[in-house]
Amino acid sequence: MDFKVFPRIVKAGRRTKISVKFASQHDGVSAELTLIPSEGGDVFKENLSIKRNIVSSELFFSKEMEYTLMLKCGTDEGSVRLYALEDDLFWLKPLKGDLHMHTDQSDGEDTPAFAAASSREIGMDFIAITDHYKYEPSIEAIHAFRDINTGLNIFPGEEIHPPGNRVHMINFGGSQSINKMFGSPEYIEGVKKIEKITGHDIPEDIRHSCASCIWCFNRIRKINGIGVFCHPHWFVYNKYDVDERITEYLFKTGCFDVLELIGGYHKSETESNGLTVAYWADRQLKYRKIPVIGSGDSHGVTNGRLFGWYYTVAFAQSNAFEDIAEAVKKFRTTAVEALPGEAVHVYGQFRYVKYAYFLIREYFPIRDLECAEEGKLLKEYINSGKGAEKISKTAKKADSFRKKFFDVIK
Description:
Radius of gyration: 24 Å
Strand content: 25-35%
Shape: globular
CATH class of the largest domain: Alpha Beta
CATH superfamily of the largest domain: Metal-dependent hydrolases
Oligomer: single chain
Distance between the termini: 32 Å
Strand order of the largest sheet: 11-10-9-19-20-21
Number of domains: 2
Structural class: alpha+beta
CATH architecture of the largest domain: Alpha-Beta Barrel
């Protein structure tokens, strides 16, 4: 039985008009609707007559959770999933993003603009280009599309590599480069000062690395960015890239803003993600709640490796930087692992994980079709400089679908 149901995401604790539109002729036929709450509660049933191939009902959604709407017309049966949200989450937009990717300006394969356009093509709403040692490629990507209205927001970024420190960090959204500060008196003296202050807490052989990390994360915040601690359990050259004592110290002090919980590992390396998830869970119990993201760490968008495999779902007012940053700080982000041909795994706070699974199954696959069209147009725009109006119209289509799916007007 072919039919469409709107809206699919509603407010909890109230009645909402749900409409079912049948693809084939069903006029005058009786339809049985059954609403089943996934977490228990009263099951609601109603028989209605279909008119003009549409049937509507005011259904009550008692609390925030997923629901199944069953439909039966004679011998034909079908079902669809819906989700009810409390007001605080209902008015936030579900947004996909990737805050860790490389281009041909470091060790990647594609230009910053092409990587950005390709990101929109797979449904990303926000990204940061984060080349090794370089801040400028992210600005290049921003400038490539600065004169058009697009659904993709591109932020400044870079992967940070302090001298003598193996820890990989991301400067997400900061107003200037951190890499360019290494070697400056400000950095050298600043790290020495931190080493003196923290010396009694840290073994001498890792003291410089720990102090360097603290300086970097503090400096990122001063330039209004978000500091990301990346892939702590990357196994390379027969050992973890970061000394476990350094990882423990960074978790203990909470000096970073967000953890790259799920990072860009090839299929043979995903054990490292599993270890980071377990470590994060343990340290949350031991120390404090820790915000998380998922990132692709891709080095090419057409080579079939890493691009789109890992990403973040954020729940924010918009894809503006200040709103994404707020979502991170308030733990409204989930890290997603979506390896090709395998089941999707989502990590984060339980409330947002439940909701993200629904969105990944029911919402994003449809919405992302509009994003794919926009991404293709962005690629054409890179070469021709034409099509700005068409790109703007396509971006609005994706947002129009969201409004219909949520039954909202903004």
